[in-house]
Amino acid sequence: MNGDESHKDYYKVLEVDYDATEEIIRLNYRRLALKWHPDKQKDDNAVTAKFQEINEAYKVLSDPAKRLEYDLTGNCEIDKYTLPEYLTRFKGMILTCNGLGITHTSIWSQQLMETNEYVDK
């Protein structure tokens, strides 16, 4: 490790491929969370740190907006934005991705339409 904790590879933390589905991410998270739960190995700071890292990775990769930001920038400030703020911030990029035929856009399209109703008022 290079010691740079600010740019962890959350996909490697959860032991999944970069194109993993939400289901695979959830299943691996559960498996790893059980394996590294601090209650299983008491008084071990390394285990607690690993468990927290797994939770942090899952919090980002299980949320479509946070995963998108992470995939594009390699970093994600977990609690920086609400979902409508993410969608507003990345609206142009999401629409461009839709035009390029990138999948999972129906989720974004619906959220964008709902968000635009509030933002444009």
UniProtKB/TrEMBL annotation:
PROSITE patterns: DNAJ_2. CDD domains: DnaJ (cd06257). Pfam families: DnaJ. Residues 9-74 form the J domain. GO terms for cellular component: cytoplasm; nucleus. InterPro entries: DnaJ_domain, J_dom_sf. This is J domain-containing protein. The lineage of its organism: Eukaryota, Viridiplantae, Streptophyta, Embryophyta, Tracheophyta.
